[in-house]
Design goal:
Elements (H helix, E strand, L loop, with lengths): L5 E2 L8 E6 L12 E6 L9 E9 L3 H5 L21 E8 L9 E4 L6 E4 L16 H14 L23 H6 L7 E5 L4 H9 L6 E5 L4
Parallel strand pairs: 8-9
Antiparallel strand pairs: 1-5, 2-3, 4-5, 4-7, 4-9, 5-6
Length: 216
């Protein structure tokens, strides 16, 4: 059964600007490992939505996905494909009954202006790109479910270069009491994502790093 599309206006002359993985880096990435590309805006099929990326999260784990082997929790980014990443997006065309056009969502749109989704990766946005979002959930699962520390053991944090560093027990209560303040670095423009990501890995940012891809 074919469903009619629920749509919101697209910008005049809209194209899908994407940051593609051009080469697999050795050590720290360089500008040559990325390529800015333009493609037609994709159209949703039945059960899909078209997302327009508003804010893109940049996180250190993305470096591991640039390697050919990827990681045990996520596959490698194929050469010539858009870099992966969590994003706050707006539904601009929908053929999915659960997500009307105009709705704000959190998903895995990646480093591109527009992306398709079947809805399986979408959720309501809140602080999801910050210190209380995906990286904090990953830190919690890694520590409590996988690490399972026991009394008398010592926990060593080997890497905390991204939003992991913002994760603490009872963070919500500390925030409510004003004892902790979240800091955020916001960069304008998808074209600046590669240089900003390289700077993240070199320690140039202070606070959670977000790229503003489009206006709301």
């Amino acid at each position: 059964m074919t469903t009619s599309a629920d749509t919101a206006p697209l910008p005049h002359g809209a194209v899908n600007r994407r940051i593609l993985l051009a080469a697999r880096p050795r050590g720290l990435p360089t500008a040559r490992d990325f390529r800015l590309d333009e493609a037609p805006v994709p159209q949703p099929r039945d059960g899909q939505v078209l997302l327009r990326t508003l804010y893109l999260s940049l996180d250190p784990y993305m470096r591991n996905l640039m390697d050919e082997g990827g990681t045990r929790y996520a596959p490698a980014v194929p050469l010539g494909a858009p870099m992966v990443g969590g994003a706050v997006s707006r539904v601009v065309a929908s053929r999915h009954p659960g997500f009307p056009a105009g709705e704000l969502v959190l998903g895995n749109a990646g480093w591109q202006g527009y992306a398709l989704s079947d809805g399986g990766d979408l959720a309501q946005p809140s602080l999801a790109l910050g210190g209380l979002g995906m990286p904090a959930f990953a830190a919690c699962v890694g520590l409590l479910d996988i690490g399972q520390p026991k009394p008398g053991e010592t926990v060593v944090v080997a890497a905390a270069t991204g939003a992991f560093a913002a994760f603490r027990r009872d963070m919500g209560a500390w925030l409510a009491a004003g004892r902790v303040r979240l800091r955020k670095d916001r960069v304008e423009g998808l074209e600046n994502a590669p240089a900003t990501f390289i700077g993240l890995l070199e320690g140039r940012n202070f606070g959670k790093l977000v790229v503003r891809v489009a206006g709301e």
